[in-house]
């Protein structure tokens, strides 16, 4: 009986040790994990100029400007300035194109579109306010989404604009904040 007790004790001790070893090695990869990026930017403040447009999209400038400012503010690595004179860099964004292409047609009438693929294209320029040097110029950025015309094309496109602006603003923020 004593040998059986000792055997069970050593088996349970070995399994606890094995489980402990597995637990330690499983979580050792997380010991150096760090939230966010460790890259440091060469500037601390950014001015986002009001978005300009060369495309006919009503009310798009205000929506896109707000989304870009929000994306940069949410990152936390830079502060937003209210004037170019108060900032280290200035970001200018221009909407250059908005287009829609027929993606699918209605089964009963192929002349009527059921959905469109809409594309919003912008160019972004980042300028160092202290040296006047262009950090990047007219970098093309675009976003695409499908719009379904079940509730009407105009209403569907109006509802899609904030979504396209959010996609563009995320890409603009990455272009500005990625350490290159």
UniProtKB/TrEMBL annotation:
Record-linked Gene3D superfamilies: Lipoprotein like domain
Chain coiled-coil ranges: none
Gene Ontology biological process terms, A to Z: Gram-negative-bacterium-type cell outer membrane assembly
Q: Which organism is it from?
A: Horticoccus luteus
> Would you say which domain of life the source belongs to?
Bacteria
Q: What InterPro entries would the database entry show?
A: LPS_assembly_LptE
Protein name (record): Lipopolysaccharide assembly protein
PROSITE patterns reported in the protein's UniProt record:
PROKAR_LIPOPROTEIN
Q: Which GO terms describe its cellular component?
A: outer membrane
